[in-house]
Design a protein that fits this description.
The chain is an all-alpha fold. It has a domain of about 110 residues: Serine Threonine Protein Phosphatase 5, Tetratricopeptide repeat (Alpha Horseshoe), CATH 1.25.40. Helices cover about 75% and strands about 0% of the residues. A two-stranded antiparallel ribbon has the order 1-2. Strand 1 and strand 2 form a beta hairpin. The longest helix is centred in the first third of the chain and has 23 residues. The protein starts with a helix and ends with a helix.
Amino acid sequence: MSPRARSAAACALAAALALAAGARADEPPCIAQCRDLAAKKQLRDGLNEQGCQVNICQMDGRNLYKEGKYKEALDTYAVIADRLQTSPSFRFDRGLVYYSLGRFDEALLDFNVIVTESPDSFPAGAQRAHTLVRLGKLKDAREEFDKLLASPAAEREFRGLRTKSYLTGNIGVIDVVNGDVSKGKQELEDALQQDGRNTLASTYIYRVLPQVDKKTIDGPGILLLLGASEDVGIANRDAARDAIEKLVQKYPKFPETYFLAAELYRGTGHFDECERLLLIGEKAIPDEVDLKAERIRCTLLKVGPTSPEAKEPITELKQLSFDHPDASLPKKILRALDIY
């Protein structure tokens, strides 16, 4: 082989090795872990490398989901998806990830497969119902919740809530969104009576339904709020931000949007955005004392409560508490600062 040919072959080999290294660098850690265990002959008896990948990658995907790393979880599931298409647990895990990424059509496909093959799967049915809500298929979602309510599983605990209360509360919200406010209110009251810890029911009874009566929010707005609240909870921040901006634009006098925005932006350290939106709320609803208190809290978090810049907002917060003795939030913030 001539020197030129040897050089070309060496370059080709180097390029191939680089491509192989790049492919391996993109692999989820579970693949490399199983490859190493197999190479060292450390797999347990009866388990091959493929079986190891299925077990460890699914476990890693679940852990990534719990950490809010949804894209990484989906990438991990992708390498074992062709081997687990018939596994209900895999379908459920992947459906949760799709849901958290806002890919609701794909989530629904996974949940549909489970409930078709295992009609008594309560968790899959519940997630299917929530997914239908996010897709705006409220009639189908209500039918799914009704079916779950009539099932034996409704007698058991589910996710820390009394199951009947959880189901009845969600049915109540759907009825409110659909315009049957009196029926929805009764269902929400029933849900709260069944379980006093049902925060969905209490929030809607005491904070959302009064605004429906004032016509500051309507069914489409409530549906948007429902999705935004959920996205804040699962750290789907881009979707939550977009929904909040739409709510502020269309329903500027609805207080809950601003409190939700404060929760989102405080939690992510975007204090300027927090101040901006709460100032919009103060102008739109000047009598809502807690909006001003929330805005001051964002300012104090931004500048630091012991900084020289904190003197003015703390004075403003003290005055707000004095002028509105029945308002609890200003006092709560002052107590947190140990200055009340």
